[in-house]
Amino acid sequence: SCEDKCDGREPAGRRAGSQQKRARGSMERFENGQWHVVWDKPLLNDVSPVDALVSSTGQAVTFDNWHSVGHGSDTVVIYDAQGNVVRALALHDFLPDDYIGALPHSVSSLHWGGEHCITGGDRRLVLRVAVPSLGFRRNAEREYVDVVVDLASGRITPPQGKAWMLARVRAWTVNALRWL
């Protein structure tokens, strides 16, 4: 739980008496009027993912860790249709450090993302990355740039184009103004 993580109890979120050491995920499919377990395995997250997406082919993507959004090597984790890890990503795997430093943040979290989606016939994950701003804005008012990740391989297509260049300028400006 959030309190466990804050109080330094490991593993955080574990029920009293439970031997389970990690968050657990399961995938089921509905066939012939019944649910069938496709996979049931531990996730990389130590407490619980904040959000998840599932493709129609059975791949799953988890986002962030409860009470530490944007932190850790498992900020984005792609699982194949059998529940095996395709790739785990930290923010620095797809964003420059100066950009990450300019993102809005709270005591425990970096507010880096928006409504991510799976597109391209279930072949691409689109990460909606917040454009840095001087003040924290509600999700509806924030601007985003897209980072595309291949679901099968976890390969990242680096962001580019005018929107990305403007987002980088905004990050530079936010960082510069923080030093004044």
How would you explain this protein's 3D organization?
The protein is α+β, with helices and mostly antiparallel strands. It is 17% helix and 29% strand. The protein contains three helices and ten strands. The protein has helices at residues 2-7, 97-102, 162-179, and strands spanning 24-31, 34-42, 51-54, 60-63, 76-79, 85-89, 117-119, 124-130, 144-150, 156-157. The strands form three sheets. The protein has a four-stranded antiparallel β-sheet with strand order 3-4-5-6, with no helix packed on it. β3 and β4 (60-63) form a beta hairpin. The N and C termini lie far apart (38 Å). The model has no long low-confidence stretch (mean pLDDT 87).
Features:
180 residues, alpha+beta, four-stranded antiparallel beta sheet, 3 helices, elongated
Structural class: alpha+beta
Strand order of the largest sheet: 3-4-5-6
| Helix content percent band | 10-25%
Strand content: 25-35%
Secondary structure: number of strands: 10
- Low-pLDDT sequence parts: none
Shape: elongated
Helical run tally? 3
Mind telling me the C-alpha Rg?
18 Å
Mean pLDDT: 87
> What gap, in angstroms, lies between the N and C termini?
38 Å
Largest sheet entry: 4 strands, antiparallel
Order of helices and strands: HEEEEEEHEEEEH
Which helices and strands occur, and which strands form pairs?
Blueprint: H1 2-7, E1 24-31, E2 34-42, E3 51-54, E4 60-63, E5 76-79, E6 85-89, H2 97-102, E7 117-119, E8 124-130, E9 144-150, E10 156-157, H3 162-179
Antiparallel strand pairs: 1-2, 3-4, 4-5, 5-6, 7-8, 8-9, 9-10
